[in-house]
Hints:
Blueprint: E1 27-31, H1 35-47, E2 51-55, H2 58-62, E3 71-75, E4 77-80, E5 83-84, H3 85-93, E6 100-105, H4 110-118, E7 123-126, H5 131-160, H6 172-184, E8 191-194, H7 201-210, E9 219-223, H8 232-237, H9 254-257, E10 262-266, H10 276-285, E11 287-288, E12 297-298, E13 302-307, H11 311-317, H12 322-328, E14 331-334, H13 345-360, E15 366-367, H14 369-377, H15 383-397, E16 402-403, H16 410-420, H17 430-444, H18 449-456, H19 460-469, H20 472-476
Parallel strand pairs: 1-2, 1-3, 3-6, 6-7, 8-13, 8-14, 9-10, 10-13, 15-16
Antiparallel strand pairs: 4-5, 11-12
Helix pairs in contact: 13-15, 14-16, 17-18, 18-19
Amino acid sequence: MSSSSNRANPDTSSGDQPTDDQPRHVRILVVEDRPTERKALVKILQAEGHDVSGCENTDKALGYLDENIDIVMTDLYLGDEKNTGIRLMELWRKKRTATQFILFTGQSRIDTAVEAMRKGAFDYITKPLNTDELMISLNRAIKAIDQDREIDTLRRRLDQRFGLEQIVGQSKQMREVFDRIQRAAPTDSTVLVLGESGTGKELVAQALHQNSPRKTKPFVAINIAAVPGTLVESELFGHVRGAFTGAMEEREGRFEQADGGTLFIDEVGDFEIGLQAKLLRVLETLTVTPVGGSKDRKVNVRVIAATSRDLRKMVADGDFREDLFYRLNVIPITLPPLRDRPDDIPLLIEHFLSEISARKNVESKKVGPEVMHAMQRAAWPGNVRELRNVLETMMVLAEGDTLQPADLPEQFRGEADRTTDFTIPRGMTMDDLERLAIESALSASDGNRTHAAEQLGISVRTLQRKLRQYDFAERNG
């Protein structure tokens, strides 16, 4: 890197302000064997708001490997030929490949500069250090880190295939969900995803995003229930410096972070009533006003909201604004609880066994028939999330290659016992068994013949014929 004519030692010149805007504050390690220069450089970087540590040699620098350092700024020569910035970079990169290195030295040798860059240094600056040049290099390194992280995020999103493939099911209820996703995804209409906790509402939001024209732009999620009430406004709309105690710098909210893409607001039913008017205004105008600020900022965002609460009841009780409800409920998508789609459980089990085996580095296992029956009978108050967690526990702890009733958590073993202890009473005929199966299915589905037929694996027409055959109308009348 060529040097500027306006050079000054960092401990004797403050220099002008950097010509590049600093993207954000980062964690920096300064490695310099001369104490005066090291302390001066640490002081300058701290004055810019960065979290800075300093040390004098390679061995001590390696002690910071687990400290989440973003950038290492190191002298090329640290006392002897074996103790160099290049050697430090090579050792460091064996464990932390994402850290950026900026090297500096008093020896302006082009061959050393070329070697440093070839081995992965981000930049190379000659001494005496010029503050402006140093800050420009630092800010470029920060922007490079942010770009790498954005690329990694996109790559992970593509690897995880946040699309319809991640939503497993073939029941009638889930086929209706798939149809709604496919119809709603290409539009910019607001979607309200309804369902109990653990049914997969965020997967639906991700599928809507990935199948939309916005899929190359950010998908940003916020769970209102997980954010302290005093910080929800700042999290969503951002804040200016000094807006409240602890607001040391300006910060973008989730609406601005999602500009051009999709914002997923989970558990919107937990939104404080006092802030609902501001959320409604943002949804209607697509402009946000940061906390403590007076200037509106335009955003281009598609909003998907979700909740496990009954918003209509909340509106009736005065806990949720009616106008906000109708603004969110443009396209509703309701996810059924797992207990209402037992036929999907074998598919979900197969999907999760494969996923858990790959992610947790455990051998895949088969599921015994008693375990399968028990899982299809279970109530699953935690829905799909609970099913996955139970399977992971069983796969890790089970000793054999097939999951057996003994491997089930205690609360599920009663269901397994019910499937294994069944005996046919003496004298019962096939007609009696068929009639018993129909009675059981109708009871489990609260008399709904469509659901009962699905559970029995027959058509509604066949079920109606069987009901007439066994004279159910007269018997149940």
